[in-house]
Amino acid sequence: MGTMTREQIDEILERVRTWPLERQEDAAQMLLMMEEQGTELCELSEEEIAEIKLAQEEADRGEFATDEEIKALFDRYRRP
Question: Using CA atoms, how far apart are residues 17 and 64, in angstroms rounded to an integer?
C-alpha cells in the first residue's frame, strides 16, 4: 500500500458518505481513535494490509460487518 494522493483520500471520504449511517459512525469512531493516538506513523504488517484489501473488496460488494464484528474490532484496538 503506497502513499495516497490527496485526491485519493478525498475520493474515499466521499464514498464513506454514501455508506449506511451506522457504518459512517463506525468509520468516524475509528478515525477519532487514530487521532487520539497522535501523529506517529503506523507501519502495517503484510497480514494487516491483506485484511484491509479484503475489507475493501467486501465493501465494494456491499458486504458489511455485523454489530458483533464491529464490537470485536473495537475491543481489539481499544486502548486500556
Answer: 15
Nearest to 23 by CA among 51, 62, 76: 62
pLDDT of residue 7: 93
Task: Decide if 21 contacts 65 (C-beta within 8 A).
Answer: no
Which residue segment(s) compose the domain that 38 sits in?
6-77
State the pTM of this model.
Answer: 0.45
**What b/e readout covers 26-49, taking b as 16+ CB neighbours within 10 angstroms?**
beeeeeeeeeeeeeeeeeeeeeee
Give a yes or no: residue 45 inside a domain. yes
Position 54 scores a pLDDT of: 84
Residue 66, in any domain of the structure: yes
50: in domain:
yes
